[in-house]
Design a protein that fits this description.
With about 80 residues, the chain is an alpha+beta fold. Helices cover about 35% and strands about 15% of the residues. It has a single domain (about 1-75), classed as Nucleotidyltransferase, domain 5. It has helices at about 20-40, 50-55; strands at about 15-20, 45. Strands 1-2 form a two-stranded parallel ribbon. Strand 1 (about 15-20), helix 1 (about 20-40) and strand 2 form a beta-alpha-beta unit.
Length: about 80
C-alpha cells in the first residue's frame, strides 16, 4: 500500500539467502517463496554481502560502468 504497487506489477521476488541469522533467513525465505508461488513469478536469491558491495551501482537513469574483477573490504 505504501509503495502504491499492485501485485500484478511485480516481475520477481528477491530475498537474502545468506549469510545472516538463521531465524531471519528462514522467515524471509519462507515469505519470499510463498509470495512468489502465489503470484507465479520468479524467485531471486541474493547474497547479503554481495548486495552491500554492489548496491551503490543501482541507479535509474545512468548506470555506472564497473570493471571486474574488483577488490572490496566489507567489515
Amino acid at each position: 500500500k505504501i509503495a502504491n504497487i499492485k501485485p500484478s506489477q511485480l516481475h520477481a521476488i528477491a530475498f537474502t539467502n545468506g549469510p545472516g541469522l538463521m531465524g531471519s533467513l528462514l522467515v524471509g525465505t519462507s515469505f519470499a517463496k510463498s509470495l512468489a508461488l502465489a503470484l507465479d513469478i520468479p524467485l531471486v536469491p541474493v547474497h547479503h554481502m554481495h548486495a552491500h558491495i554492489l548496491a551503490h551501482l543501482i541507479e535509474d537513469a545512468h548506470p555506472k560502468q564497473i570493471l571486474f574483477p574488483l577488490i572490496c573490504l566489507t567489515v
